[in-house]
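#struct-help
A.M.: can someone run this one for me? Single chain, 333 residues.
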Amino acid sequence: MAGTILMTGANSSLAIPAVQHLLTKYPDHTAVLTVRNTSDTDVNTNKLRDTISQHPNAKTSIRQLDLADLSAVHDFASTIASEIADGKLPPLASIVCNAYCWNMVGVAEITGDGYEKTIQVNHLAHVALVHRLLGHFGPEGGRVVLLASDAHWTGKNGLQKHPPAIPDDLELLVKPAPDKPTDNMGRGFQRYANSKLAVIMWMYALNRYLEKDPSLSRITAVAINPGNLSDSRALRTNTPQMLVYMSKFVVRPLRPILRLMDPTMRTAAEAGTDVADIATNKASPGERGYFTLLKKDSSSPDSKDEEKQQKLWVKSAEWARITGENTALKVGV
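D.P.: on it. Structure tokens below:
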């Protein structure tokens, strides 16, 4: 099923090998790749350009998109929708919500939209993007790929100090209480974990509504935990120096041994290949739900609370400025 694959955060450690695999194995697809900084001074965007240059016949474009700005997300979605309607792009085959944000070295950052940055970039912006573009998939349907993490499950990630939880007062998810200056890493990682828990819970709700809508029921949503990526740039971005040293001198050199204890310990290239395969529906075609690597899996008990999923679904639409007029879903908004 050839079509357009839209990927956010396309210059990340996982995304660049995903793009390489996509352009090599699925050359009939069109790739729309978003990054926050498209300038030639951005070393990671240049790596993405180098990857694309190896495929001279590839149908790709790199687009600027800042997920910390919801107005920019809505404007971008309108542009993509218009290009599909005008035949400049083929209908969507997949939306890969790969971009992420975390901050474990400072207090919570607030975006211009008034929301905590981690939850906005990781969840709310993708909620807006997916809702706005659901009506622009082809008649064969397609896939929404959300990036999850074992961090959403209490006790499963060694960086966890405070357990993830969706608060009863959902406003605290987007406008959390101030951090103690001495606990930036603990609270920063908790905000990241909370965002991934929200992503997974929203995925379950999205699938329920897609299945109820005859015109959209062939679109499937998956949340994939791509594994613990020992060579990810994330371990060196907005993280304490201790974690940077640990990544360089312990995790990467000892990956083969660590993998014996944690089978999800692997490289970003391995994870990128999986994400490309699941995005194109090559892996687990037609399946929905939570995956660890490419294996259908069970997410945390907290993530399966349908009452809380529904409350989060409603609030996420509100926060992301989604109404019945700007999404193709006929139910649920």
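A.M.: thanks! The first helix runs from residue 15 to 25.
D.P.: also worth noting: The longest strand covers residues 219-225.
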